[in-house]
UniProtKB/TrEMBL annotation:
This is Phage integrase SAM-like domain-containing protein. InterPro entries: DNA_brk_join_enz, Integrase-like_cat_sf, Integrase_recombinase_N, SAM-like_dom. It comes from Muribaculum intestinale. GO terms for molecular function: DNA binding. Transmembrane segments: none annotated.
Length: 461
């Protein structure tokens, strides 16, 4: 069976599989008769059987959440777990078609096919391991698949390799799984750590969040009636407790960096501090969005209020309706950011990447993820000793965003601008003030961002 590039002319979506026998035509398609991707609905897969100007649809039990996910499924190899499962179902219906035609001397009817399929096949997958594997295989982002696979590996170990039906995953079982995780070792020994270190709280929460996501999808697919309670087992973790530093500490890093000569700024420690300050000055940007920045016509130092701009990758992937966020966010190039750009950015040329070294020669999404991971790892590794010497907590690139937000908030900058500056609007107040943001002058935005290098005043009683 091969992938088909032919297109369903009515809905312009490609056919995933195709076959015919004795004048009966079969196609595995996204069944968009009732559900639509463009309305944000999950669309079921179905085998469409056409015969004598009539059609029957046989749902496979699998759904797709977007046309992008469906197209990824269409182009996947037959060895991919979820595609193999659908191929098995497709071939089963094809075998039934052949059997009816051969046994009844060609007297085939769609009603007879429906009866025979109903007798001998149940497409629903209730096996938790298989369902989890299929869900993981369908994820587009490499890191998401790795997270799902790692969590499933732990769940398999917990079950001693014995699978369990989805409806049997109860709150009581999740509690036992949580207690089991508390006793497990990380298996990863980092420099300076003792071997056999217990799983961190963050890792345990990531595993439980993956399990909850699997069960949420199972409910959406109609495989379970309700998702078990997780609230007694979910905790914040260390990652989000103190992931911001004060402006005073930012200024310590800035003073350290500016005290270095050109050679020192290109050293491992100098680059780590400079790169972190760059992320902070770029509205708390993450590394992947930093890598996507391009020089614009108004980025030149000759402009009164030079700027860069970005669309946050997380929002871009979500493809949310217009009105949920402001698409393009402006980054004022404040004096400190200009100094950092002069040291680490490419020469100014409109349309050229600002930081071509981050992605390097990477072309595929997987390769780009690896490059960004290495970029973040080098910052975290090389900035740690500097933080110790300056008597501030150790930081990672992920601290830049919350430190930027914290600095503006302590200066009393309105929430609508802060939300806008980091690439999203979440609060009702921000939505109401979106018109204000659109009319905010370049001068005002420049003034707001310059506050991130100014110690906030002490509130008066």
């Amino acid at each position: 069976m091969s992938n088909e590039s032919s297109v369903n002319s009515a809905k312009r979506l490609p056919v995933a599989m195709k076959a015919d026998f004795g004048g009966v035509f079969l196609s595995l398609i996204a069944d968009v008769r009732h559900a639509k991707f463009e309305r944000g609905e999950d669309v079921p897969l179905a085998v469409r059987v056409s015969y004598d100007k009539d059609k029957k649809y046989f749902r496979t039990g699998m759904k797709m959440s977007s046309s992008k996910e469906y197209l990824s499924f269409v182009s996947a190899r037959d060895s991919r777990p979820d595609r193999k499962e659908q191929l098995d179902y497709f071939n089963m219906i094809l075998d039934v078609v052949k059997s009816i035609i051969l046994s009844s001397k060609g007297r085939f009817t769609l009603e007879r096919l429906q009866e025979e399929v109903a007798k001998g096949f149940k497409p629903v997958v209730n096996d938790t391991f298989t369902y989890w594997e299929n869900l993981s295989a369908g994820k587009e982002k490499v890191k998401t698949r790795q997270m799902y696979d790692m969590a499933l590996k732990r769940f398999r170990e917990f079950r001693n390799g014995s699978t369990i039906q989805l409806p049997d995953v109860t709150t009581d079982l999740i509690g036992k799984f949580d207690k089991w995780l508390m006793k497990q070792k990380s298996g990863v020994v980092r420099k300076g750590e003792k071997p056999n270190k217990p799983l961190s709280l963050d890792t345990r929460m990531m595993i439980l969040r993956a399990l909850r996501a699997v069960l949420n999808q199972a409910k959406k697919d109609g495989l379970i009636d309700a998702v078990p309670e997780f609230k007694d087992f979910m905790h914040t973790g260390n990652r989000r407790r103190t992931n911001a530093i004060s402006v005073e500490d930012v200024l310590k890093l800035w003073d350290y960096w500016t005290s270095l000569d050109s050679r020192g700024k290109q050293s491992a420690k100098g680059r780590a501090v400079g790169r972190w300050l760059m992320l902070y000055s770029l509205n708390g940007l993450n590394a992947i969005d930093m890598a996507k920045l391009v020089w614009q016509g108004n980025s030149s130092a000759d402009e009164d209020y030079p700027q860069l701009s970005f669309i946050r990758s997380k929002i871009d992937r979500a493809n949310k309706p217009v009105g949920k966020q402001l698409d393009v966010t402006i980054i004022p190039i404040i004096p400190q950011l200009r100094q950092l750009l002069n040291e680490y950015a490419s020469p100014f040329k409109a349309g050229a990447p600002v930081f071509p070294d981050i992605f390097g020669n990477a072309v595929t999404d997987e390769a780009k993820v690896i490059r960004v991971h290495d970029f973040n790892r080098r910052i975290s590794k090389n900035i740690a000793e500097v933080c110790d010497s300056l008597d501030i907590q150790r930081i990672t690139p992920q601290y830049a965003r919350n430190s930027f937000i914290s600095a503006l908030a302590h200066h009393g900058v309105m929430t609508s601008y802060i939300d806008y500056a980091v690439g999203h609007t979440t609060s009702e107040v921000s939505a109401l003030l979106a018109g204000y943001i659109n009319n905010l002058s370049d001068e005002a935005m420049q003034a707001y961002n310059e506050k991130i290098f100014i110690i906030p005043p002490i509130p008066q009683n």
